[in-house]
Predict the structure of Lipolytic enzyme / transcription regulator protein.
Amino acid sequence: MHAIDENGLVCVDLDDFTEISDSIRLRHKIDELMEQCSCPEEIPNFSVSIIFKSGKRFYISNLYYWAIAYRTQGYQRADIDHAIDIYDGKEYFIQDKIPRDETQLAILEVMRSRYKLYTAFAMVRQCYECDVIIEAYQNMPVQNHDEYYSRNYQNFEKFIIAFLDQMIPELTDTLTEYAHLDFFKDKKFRASVISNRQNKILPVLTPRELQCLYLVSQGANPKSIAEQLFLSPDTVTTHIKAIRKKLKCNTITQAVIIAIKNDLFKNTKYPFLGIH
């Protein structure tokens, strides 16, 4: 439990918690960029969650004191707004409209009463490499969340684009295994994702690669795929490696998920399999 000052606000030395939170560790630069990149005045607090296809999530925000409670007091229990069934395919959603159980509601009340944080809206930006959930918080209840989103989202997008551009060195140093992704390497691509104006076309897979990937999705192993497609096992392995490289996946299972999510099997014919 944190110390509370005479105004009822949380009072701790953030320097004692730099090892548990990237946000706290990077807070001086985050605070500078809040002003430098013109964060909208109506959005005093924000968070960015990057959810990679591997399932790993990276989180950065200016919610420094909440980050301590989140990491040390089990408040992840209320964190259901990053579940894919909540956000998938949406432009934005209102966190307060998500059904929650009693424990989750109690944690939200702590966020509001002790940390003076009220959820406003969550922008959803998705691409073939990752999902990005960008949340805005107010220090008082928001009366009309949808109107608040409509009024602020364009300037908020501009801020997040500029913020991420300036944070790329720190992000790639922290996320070395993902530093090769277009989202980190390509400034224009990243901006198109955050502004929701990206070309969502995935790298093109050959018909044979799609056949192999489809059979993987049906549970076939390389030997079985080779037999069904009249290929050598080495050729199937080569196709699988090419698929993973094109879709930037660590595993073929991740590639299957991307293919299903983006309907890559929908309009593809499989003449050897009788599948249309």
Q: What stands out?
A: The longest strand covers residues 118-126. The chain has a mean pLDDT of 88.
